[in-house]
Amino acid sequence: TCCLRIAMEEDDAQTTGRKRKHSPLEDATLFSKICFSWAYPLLKLGAKRPLEEIDLNELCTLETSAYNKKKIEDMWQQEKISNRRNLARALFIDYVKSTWFAQLMMSINMGARIAQAWALGLLMEQFGRFDVEDSAEGQGSIDTRKGYFYACIIVLCGLVAFPSKQSQFFATYRKGMQLRVGVVASIYAKTLRLPAVGIGANNSITAGYITNLASNDVE
Questions:
Q1: pLDDT tens for residues 40-56?
Q2: CA distance to 2, 116, 175, 202, 214, per residue, from 169 (Å)
């Protein structure tokens, strides 16, 4: 699965001694994150030739299995201390708190789309005021400046809505992947501490089998 592959790549990079490049996402500016310009060097390299494993950047700290495993276990310990023992509640609260940027981008996207629809309605209203008979008599009521103004609003709102939507999608998907990696890593670490006796008929169910089932459920 994807989570196990990430963990295996971490171990492989450490054992082979190959040094990956630092992740540009960790040092990216706000403009770079919104426009995704931090990923351009890798995309440019992939357009020139097929990418190799060594071309991939190092994982961000927030994406590593060790970091997310510790975070999930800390959340569970807090739930045990508070006597709630509800992991779903803890995951939901952490998701809401850590996706404030995605929520801001979603609000901006919704505002831009509403403003775009409002400007489109006013622009169509300007065209609706035009009457052939009135224009022939010199009594046409179209305001050219307002028409261009509403058209500019539609274009600007479109330029705002597109990157904000993509940033919101990327942030929420990234957080979901982090929670998934943390949960699967915690389950895998727990299965390694369980005794092998009594797991399945003739000990046929291994820790890897349990982890595969868990990763499918987490997805």
A1: 888 899 889 998 888 88
A2: 19, 20, 10, 46, 25
